Amino acid sequence: MPIGGFIVNVHxxxxxxxxxxxxxxxxxxxxxxxxxxxxxxxxxxxxxxAMEEMVEKIMxxxxxxxxxxxxxxxxxxxxxxxxxxxxxxx
Amino acid sequence: MGLSRREFLxxxxxxxxxxYVGINLPFKNENTSQASDADxxxxxxxxxCGSGCRLELGVKNGKAVALRGIPDSRTNYGYxxxxxxLFYKLMGYNNPDRLKKPLYRKSKKEPFKEISWNxxxxxxxxxxxxxxxxxxxxxxxxxxxxxxLTEETYIFQKVFRGGLxxxxxxxxxxxxxxxxxxGYLTSFGADEPIGSYTNFERASCFFIIGSNMAxxxxxxxxxxxxRKLDNRETVKVINADPRVSPTSRIADLxxxxxxxTDLALxxxxxxxxxxxxxxxxxxxxxxxxxxxxxxxxxxxxxxxxFLKDYTPEKVSDICGGNxxxxxxxxxxxxxxKSEGTMSIWTMGINQRKRGVWANNLIHNLHILTGQLCRxxxxxxSLTGQPNACGGVREGGGLCHILPGHRLVKxxxxxxxxxxxxGIPQGRIPPKPGYxxxxxxxxxxxxxxxxxxxxxxxxxxxLPNCDKYRKGMSREDVFMVVTDIFPTxxxxxxxxxxxxxxxxxxxxxxxxxxxRSQLTVKAVDAPGEAxxxxxxxxxxxxxxxxxxxxxxxxxxxEPFLGKEPDYELPKAIWDEYTQKLTKGRDNDLRGATYDxxxxxxxxxxxxxxxxxxxxxxxxxxKFVRGLDPLADKHAKDQKPYQFYGxxxxxxxxxxxxxxxxxxxxxxDFEYPFxxxxxxxxxxxxxxxxxxxxxxxxxxxxxxYVEINPKDAKKLGIKPGDMVEVxxxxxxxxxxxKVYVGPCEGMVFVYWYDQEESRMINRVTKDxxxxxxxxxxxxxxxxKIRKVSGPKPLKPFLVEMKT
Amino acid sequence: MKRLKxxxxxxxxxxxxxxxxxxxxxxxxxxxxxxxxxxACATCHIKATPDIYKEWFGSVHGIxxxxxxxxxxxxxxxxxxxxxxxxxxxxxxxxxxxxxGKTCWDCHPAHHFFIHx
Lengths: 90, 801, 117
Ligand code: SF4
Prior knowledge:
The complex is a heterotrimer of chains A (90), B (801) and C (117).
Chain A: E1 3-10, H1 15-23, E2 28-33, E3 38-44, H2 48-60, E4 64-73, H3 75-89
Antiparallel strand pairs in A: 1-3, 1-4, 2-3
Chain B: H1 5-21, E1 40-45, E2 54-60, E3 63-69, H2 82-86, E4 103-104, E5 113-114, H3 117-135, E6 140-144, H4 150-163, E7 169-171, H5 178-188, E8 205-209, H6 213-216, H7 218-230, E9 236-240, E10 253-255, H8 262-275, H9 281-287, E11 288-291, E12 297-298, H10 300-307, H11 312-319, H12 325-337, E13 341-345, H13 347-350, H14 355-369, E14 378-381, H15 388-393, E15 401-402, E16 406-407, H16 411-421, H17 436-444, E17 450-454, H18 458-461, H19 465-472, E18 478-483, E19 495-498, E20 507-510, E21 515-519, H20 532-546, H21 550-556, H22 567-580, H23 593-598, E22 603-604, H24 610-614, H25 628-632, E23 652-655, E24 672-677, H26 693-698, E25 704-706, H27 708-714, E26 721-725, E27 730-737, E28 745-749, E29 779-787
Chain C: H1 2-20, H2 41-48, H3 50-58, H4 60-63, H5 68-72, H6 84-88, H7 92-97, H8 104-107
Helix pairs in contact in C: 2-3
Bound molecules: iron/sulfur cluster.
Iron/sulfur cluster (SF4) binds next to α2 and α7 of chain B.
């Protein structure tokens, strides 16, 4: 399950509303924000693909200006792939 | 507490993201520099000592982010110590270790499992009911805390006494100020100090004995320090203590006596006062009598006779240390002659085999010299906890007292309480329950089958704690622990119930100066943590069903259906103040939540009316014109009226109390005195302060302080690992070599949770026969170097599920 | 995975934006090991900055046990020059009255804390 840390840049005048909208996305957690409109969010998804879809969803939210990835971890996904790889070999 | 790998990754993700935009996240340490960024500020009280500093909690997006002092509060005038500035880091989700779900295990050998509140309360009700049915009402017990809110202590004791019909209601204040209670009652006829903090600014002599207030009550010490520094020539400070501490830094005179010779020293000061005719004859004639026993009054002449054993010459030999006859004379002179003398003490006096007597002897000096009731003159004991006075002393939190300073054994007072609660007469047993040491002794013997421990950690804080941990580990003793963090005591529990921290719930703390102060809920508790008042109410309802006893339900009936964050504690406070304190010396009827909310600080009792309460209440008790009860109870025209409930003659009593040493004296095998105490950065068992990085790093583990002369003899260098052993147990601690403790004495901090540094495994559980307060402060030990310095790690109990 | 890389430019944008913005990084304390961090400040600073230590020890903060970290923070939020809001935790009334454009220590010199310079 990949985990990503993002800065979502929203319009500062609509911070509260945007955060509320963001929180509606499942697998998304808001960790903090500031008055400049920076919102720290962490996404958790079943696969990288699912995460990309989530990012797209975020982009569609009103007043969201940009979404920036700052941290990405897929170690268990790789592990799973490796596990599965092993299985197919044997 | 270990994070799961996933959680760790998520945090890293969040932290990395946050760092790009300079946002501080709670698990990274938020700086107080964000103070100005808070959305709202909420008034409340600090809970990390007995000073009662008022402060405001800054809340941003529903999260606690900062604390700042309230400048117009009469307790602290805006100042905070480091603990008061930083404890917001323990609130809500700011700290990952907070207990968030009820945890249960049938056997103490099993790991804990998370359960629902409903299951948890069912189990608690069943186990307590089972104990009562099988082993009688005295097989259950409550052990509470001077950190519980008044509403909490009150409802717990109501359910135990009125519902479960037992007086087994105790709390950690027994370990802390029981001797001060005994002292006030026997000397002045009424519990709690006569004056207030206002005397700090009015006194011209301070007599600080057995207290390191610079570290234990820093913000009160600041007021004393200011007074001294602003009036260097005219204000005198005497510090009497076997240990030189940071408090000694402002002293003009340091009296360093051998541990356990304090009673002789105090009698010697009285001797000088009498001999040199420094006493106040009119004050004595008007207000005092001399006593040898409760019923045995004696003459002043007899008292003079008694004092002959305590000439400064004789006593300087008894006291040793740096005590000379000259120093005793100087101290007595300053004490008697100053415009206003204020004595201040804490555990050094209270935690003694003869703690009540030591208290009496301090009061004696004040009665003799008339240093009472006038500005700056006061005999003032400091409490260690935020609500030892308010909740436990006044709210009925000890085995022998009922709410409103009523004694259990007085039929009339007991029946009053039954009537006010609307329960049948005879419901509260006439016999006091087990006092703390007896209670845990009864646990050891299996006489207590179910015990509820709230907001305290006896497994670490009881003296000779290994002995009592055995009992608490018994499989046939069911133990419920309510707390916010895992502790040494939750390790021995069957059921752990997570509670809300203060500011996550509403209630009143009553500090050292008779002042009640309200803290209203400002942030949510994490997870499923709940306020205790809700827990007790719901548990009592289940208990009533289990035992088929409608009177148990009756005890919580007035509180049914109330919302738990504000309405419920308010209803409990109203019942307690309006009904139970009515007509008592701690009359708090004027101090309603609405009144308390209007004030920057709070209300000092007696405060029978709202008008009086809105002015802040009573600054000095017993003075006509200043104390409404002094006017009400006045028997004559004299300016002071000592109307206290314990003295039928309405007089102050000067006691003839001889010198008595500690229970255990150093000998050939155990040649050192061992004493324990606190450091500013850590509090009690460090379950809270240890989780604040600033505080933990400043004092990450306990030391043993050794006098350089002793260290030299034993070849101990700073940082060496030293074994401190007594007849009961041993510790291995790093050495701090410095001129703190006197020669022949070592001193250890008691907050450390690490087994080999937990000093209460070494201390002695002897106790004062009057107050039942243990003699933590003195026992015999031996010390030896075990190794050179070792890198050590701080330690806190973690929750394993 | 490939698509995520598309996001990177916006990340860089944000970084630039912030660098210009008013994000202030905590000034750094010299690197210490975790074990070394478990040492009371004064233990080293008696030797490292003896004059400052002496000034502080004799000041009202020294006597009143207001120690280093109460103003300077701990390693994660360390400031060589404390934020003034940390003064305001205790001295909020004075802070509110302070003349505009002056810092607290312009008039109350750091580590001495006389009433006025
Ligand atoms: S002195 Fe006591 S009450 Fe005041 S801030 Fe410090 S710990 Fe809190």
